[in-house]
């Protein structure tokens, strides 16, 4: 079955462009559009999309709050949120990731990257572009507000190798890159990542990366 996509952006021309790109793919179907976060909530309830392509800065309700209400803590719906951000990296993207987004994509990304990102997110994986992830988290994770609840210090539950893996996830490395860095197999890396997510109570690699910064395991601007 085709992946059902909802387009959320306050610029009609951008929505039209995205629709043209996605409808050219046999496995993708655009089921609706919304011009702000409130419309997005209504459309999600009515259309039950698999993936919501979500802009950040919109009138009435921004993409962060809309993401929180669609996929945040306590939400159990099928919709995954892929956040759209500008080239200079919106300062609110980290907040959207905390709110439950499965990843982010630059608005000027090539068409093939947009299509692949939607497929990745629909499959339940996190969309983390390594170089962009490092820039984003290094720039913002150290000083953005973390919301009402502080991150619990549960790092002590991880083994030494699991901590190593978490650090590399926070740098945006793929399983293959982590395997090469640690001289282990990709299967072993997947196992470690699974243990990290389970022990820390995290949903995916995106939340793991943000957690690593917020807990102080990886510090903004620290590079490697």
From TrEMBL:
Q: Which residues form the HTH luxR-type domain?
A: 151-216
4-aspartylphosphate, modified sites: 55
User: Which part of the chain is the Response regulatory domain?
Assistant: 4-122
InterPro entries found in the cross-reference section: CheY-like_superfamily, NreC/VraR/RcsB-like_REC, Sig_transdc_resp-reg_C-effctor, Sig_transdc_resp-reg_receiver, Tscrpt_reg_LuxR_C, WalR-like
Is this entry keyworded Plastid?
A: no
The cross-references to SUPFAM superfamilies, in alphabetical order and at most eight, read: C-terminal effector domain of the bipartite response regulators, CheY-like
Say which domain of life the source belongs to: Bacteria
Task: Give UniProt keywords alphabetically.
Answer: DNA-binding, Phosphoprotein, Transcription, Transcription regulation
Q: What is this protein called?
A: Response regulator transcription factor
Per the UniProt entry, what species is this protein from, by scientific name?
Streptomyces goshikiensis
């Amino acid at each position: 079955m085709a992946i059902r996509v909802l387009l959320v952006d306050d610029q009609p021309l951008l929505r039209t462009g995205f629709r043209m790109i996605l409808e050219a793919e046999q496995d993708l179907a655009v089921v609706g559009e919304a011009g702000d976060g409130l419309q997005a909530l209504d459309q999600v309830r009515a259309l039950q999309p698999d993936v919501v392509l979500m802009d950040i800065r919109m009138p009435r309700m921004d993409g962060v709050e809309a993401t929180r209400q669609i996929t945040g803590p306590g939400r159990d719906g099928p919709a995954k949120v892929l956040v759209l951000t500008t080239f200079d990296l919106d300062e609110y993207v980290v907040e959207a990731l905390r709110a439950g987004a499965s990843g982010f994509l630059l608005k000027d990304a090539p068409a093939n990257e947009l299509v692949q990102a939607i497929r990745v997110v629909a499959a339940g994986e996190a969309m983390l572009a390594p170089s962009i992830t490092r820039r984003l988290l290094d720039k913002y994770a150290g000083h953005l507000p973390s919301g009402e609840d502080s991150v619990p210090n549960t790092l002590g539950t991880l083994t030494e190798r699991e901590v190593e893996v978490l650090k590399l996830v926070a740098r945006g490395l793929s399983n293959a890159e982590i395997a090469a860095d640690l001289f282990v197999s990709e299967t072993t890396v997947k196992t470690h990542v699974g243990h990290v997510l389970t022990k820390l109570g995290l949903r995916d690699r995106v939340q793991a990366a943000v957690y690593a910064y917020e807990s102080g395991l990886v510090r903004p601007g620290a590079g490697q």
